[in-house]
Amino acid sequence: MAERRPIPVYLSLEEAADAMSVSVKTIRRWIAAGTLPAYRCGKRAIRIKLEDLEAAPRQIPSARW
User: Name one Pfam family in it (predicted).
Assistant: First the structure.
């Protein structure tokens, strides 16, 4: 029997911005910079995979005194 893969969850720019507590403009900047992959659905709709959004933030190295 074939193995079933989970269906990816896609978010709108507004949903992604809300989830990350940033503005839609910031999400668009991340996409333009190549930091966050995005997918065009139809002519205008842009969607972001939830797993890509979760992988986007990077830990800031702590300053050592």
Answer: HTH_17
User: Considering the domain boundaries, does residue 33 fall inside one?
Assistant: yes
Q: For the segment 25-38, what is each residue's pLDDT rounded down to a tens digit? A: 999 999 999 999 99
pLDDT of residue 63: 60
- Is 62 part of any domain? no
Dihedral angle at the C-alpha atoms of 30, 33, 35, 41, nearest 10 degrees?
Answer: 70
> Which CATH number belongs to the domain containing residue 36 in this structure?
1.10.1660.10
d(CA 29, CA 24): 9
Contacts of 27 (CB under 8 A, 6+ apart): 13, 16, 17, 20, 36, 48
Regarding pTM above 0.85, the answer is no
